[in-house]
Amino acid sequence: MTSVSPLDVAAVTAWIEEDPDPATRAETTGLLAAHERGDVEATAALADAFGTALRFGPAGLRGPLGAGPNRMNRVVVIRTAAGLAAWLRETIGEGFTVVIGYDARHGSEVFARDTAGVVTGAGGRALLFGSYCPTPALAFALRRTGADAAVMVTASRNPPQDNGCTVYLGGRAVRGPGQGARIVPPYDAAIAERIAAVGPLARVPVADRGWETIGAEMIEEYTERAARSARVNAPAPLRIVLTAMHGVGGRVCRDALRRVGLDDVVVVPEQFDPDPDFPTVASPDPEGPGALDLSLALAREVDADLVLANDPDADRCCAAIPDEHAAGGWRRLTGDEVGALLGEQAAELAAFTGTGILANSIVSSRLLRRIAQAHGLGHRNALPGSKWVSRVPGLVFGYEEALGYCVDPASVRDKDGIAACVRLALLASVLKQQGRSLADLLDRLARQHGLHATSRLSVPAEDPSFVSETMDRLRAGGVPAALAGAPVVDAFDLMDGASDGNGGRLPPIDGLIIKTASDDRVVVRPWDTGAGLTCSYEVVVPVAVDDPVELARRTASDRLQAVKADLRSALGV
Q1: Which of 364, 467, 501, 533 is deepest in the core (most CB within 10 A)?
Q2: Does residue 158 contact residue 164 with C-beta atoms inside 8 Å?
Q3: Known catalytic membership, residue 465
Q4: At what angle do helices 187-196 and 74-92 cross, to 10 degrees?
Q5: CA distance 465 to 468
Q6: At 373, is the secondary structure helix, strand, or coil?
Q7: Helix or strand or coil: residue 1?
Q8: Is residue 460 classed as helix, strand or coil in its secondary structure?
């Protein structure tokens, strides 16, 4: 988002006249009347809602619900759908097909129906899920039906006041390894141009019928694929605590687990049914503070072996395991730890054929590369985001540290929290049969490759200039001379294109990779919204044969804290 412009009363009035939603029309009318009476708060609210617009990009659209171009509402959704339909018509011709899904957030079903109406009115074929669905089921349906595009109405793990939509391309719209994945440049810019060119809303034909309904059979097919893609059944019983985080994945995930023989699943009842207000958590992000409190309390109560969590649209997977060294006897695994576990599992499966590529984003741990090399497999780096990871040619497994795991790219070319839960639970079951655990496997990987510990520092910025000025300062010599006592030996500008790990270069992005003599690493980059900076940092601690891994883990934790402190000082926060 950009800075707020002065209030344009004519633009507000025009919006009211074309808004098809009585609720947001009344909201805007009331604020405009209050503004005309001199209400300063109403003026500020209108200026924020109408002074700029939500930006359509690789992540689609996302923002708070409400009236105005800087909010998620029916006007914005209809314009977005019209722009996408125009691009598809220009690219493919008449008869393009779009699959549309939605979660249980406020407004999602209405936005999905508007999208189906616009596609139908534009001469396209719209396939609309008959009820809410997990995001990976929508990505599965795109490839299963051979559709040209897909739209998922969701704000993923954002707060309850938000909504959004994500666009995928497939069928005739895009070829190669990106078929079925989320949009990336230049597709996002091309679609954004068509959205900007949409005229008055009255000229956009929106059908009130004529689309086709996708029934429960598609969810059935997706669930079966998520369960069977690992090609094994659970060899040992496992007690699993599962939370849906008030989202739409609970029943599908439980069903998929049962299909592989894992039927001892204890759900967190307060969070199992969809609820767009997410009443039991401060934020519906499984990584957020306190998000797993109910799950961990239940795990202790029922003596569980594993805690699994999906985010509200079920494209992310979070896990926790028993740990006698952790407070409360349980610890949440980091996204990189889950990535290493699933990567080792995928490498063992792929090693039978000797082919397949493992991939992860450049902000994720370097451990996956070492796992791939140990199994004689290839590895690739990708830009941050599942949309880039899932595009890697020959991919058999890929992940991003923000809990996104592409475990079955042949059917879902995106992160898939439900299939990831099944894979992780099956791995825990196999290890249990062998008298081992997920913690034991993590320890073995640490002994074999060194303990790779990761963390993130997020720095929000009230002043947008902070981000650009900080990046300029770092590039001009402001990189710290040392991190956690180790000299900095390299600062690579990602605008020059990082290595893809196979002799090629990744597309340039704004960011820096800082490396130290002790093999520690920091990636500094702006948020996609431009409203802050993220520092993803990793330390590597060798583990001697006779040394306890827990000692290395404590050493790594101390080093991470030291790196964080040095970063804060360098950034001036």
Answers
A1: 364
A2: yes
A3: no
A4: 120
A5: 5
A6: helix
A7: coil
A8: strand
CB 153 within 8 A of CB 230: no
Q: What is the CA radius of gyration of the chain?
A: 24
The tokens of 479 are what? Answer: 């990189």
DSSP assignment string, 195-220 = HHT---GGGS---SS-PEEE-HHHHH
Other residues' Cβ atoms within 10 Å of the Cβ of residue 454: 23
Nearest to 306 by CA among 324, 319, 287: 319
The tens-digit pLDDT sequence of the chain (573 residues) is: 334 456 889 999 999 999 999 999 999 999 999 999 999 999 999 999 999 999 999 889 999 999 999 999 999 999 999 999 999 999 998 899 999 999 999 999 999 999 999 999 999 999 999 999 999 999 999 999 999 999 999 999 999 999 999 999 999 999 888 899 999 999 999 999 999 999 999 999 999 999 999 999 999 999 999 999 888 899 999 999 999 999 999 999 999 999 999 999 999 999 999 999 999 999 999 999 999 999 999 999 999 999 999 999 999 999 999 999 999 999 999 999 999 999 999 999 887 777 899 999 999 999 999 999 999 999 999 999 999 999 999 999 999 999 999 999 999 999 999 999 999 999 999 999 999 999 999 999 999 999 999 999 999 888 878 999 999 999 998 899 999 999 999 999 999 999 989 889 999 999 999 999 999 999 999 987 778 899 999 999 999 888 899 999 999 999 999 999 999 999 988
CB atoms within 10 A of CB 193: 13
Pairing mode, strands 162-169 and 61-64: antiparallel
Cα gap 56→195, rounded to integer Å: 9
Q: Model-level pTM greater than 0.85? A: yes
Residue 163's H or E segment, with its range, is: strand 162-169
C-alpha 451/C-alpha 439 separation (Å) is 13
- Cis peptide leading into 69, omega within 30 of 0? no
Q: Is the distance from CB of 458 to CB of 285 less than 8 angstroms?
A: no
Contact call for residues 74 and 24 (beta carbons, < 8 A)? yes
Is residue 116 within 8 Å of residue 126, measured between CB atoms? yes
Whole-number Å distance between alpha carbons of 142 and 447:
42
- Given a contact cutoff of 8 angstroms between Cβ atoms, the answer to whether 465 and 553 are in contact is no
- Is the separation of the CB atoms in 567 and 537 below 8 Å? yes
Contact 46, 35 (CB under 8 A): yes
Residues in the chain: 573
SS3 480: coil
* Count of Cβ atoms closer than 10 Å to residue 208 Cβ: 10
Give phi and psi for 309, each to the nearest 5. -140, 140
Residue type, 294: L
**H or E segment to which residue 290 belongs:** none
User: What's the Cα-to-Cα distance from 210 to each of 28, 125, 145, 348, 549, rounded to whole Å?
Assistant: 32, 9, 18, 48, 61
DSSP string, 298-361: HHHHHT-SEEEEE-TTS--EEEEEE-TTSGGGEEEPPHHHHHHHHHHHHHHHHHTTT--EEEEE
Query: Please, are residues 83 and 197 in contact by the beta-carbon 8 Å criterion?
Result: yes
